[in-house]
Amino acid sequence: MKTLLILAASSMALLSGCSLTPLNSRSSVSLEEVFSPSKASLSIPGAVEKPATTVTLVERRESLTATGYAVISIQNHRLPAQQRLLAIRAAKLDAYRSLTEQVYGLKVDATATVADMVVQNDTFRSRVEGVIHGATLVSITPTGDDTYETTLSLDRAVVQDLRALYLGQLVAKIR
Asked: Can you give the pTM of this predicted structure?
């Protein structure tokens, strides 16, 4: 019973959200003075209760991020400024492709030809298909002398909505 009272007193002190400042120099207090069974609160003789401080919690939202890359010099235009714009566009599309892979997955087809226990031909094909809506452009950064890097972000809640719509379409195709 005494252990329960001590546990209740310490729990109330931790959860009260206030701090206590002693007013006198008394260094020891008996358990009977601290917690009285007739009261449902914690009281320390010679202490003054300060108002509780407010703590603001910041909401942390999780998101998927994807990065795309494109080389400037291989873009099909004769003007350097237009090549840079095309590279930025290609890097953005590459980032969207990467986001689509993360949301919907990647379909991989592979074929291997073996003759006399030696691989003659080994081919892989990958395909991704889906709709990305609500992606945020995080950054467009030149990397090196001839490359652009583009980063996109997609909120997890949007990802769940996109997956639900995709699964609904799959079910509708089956029926």
From this structure: 0.59
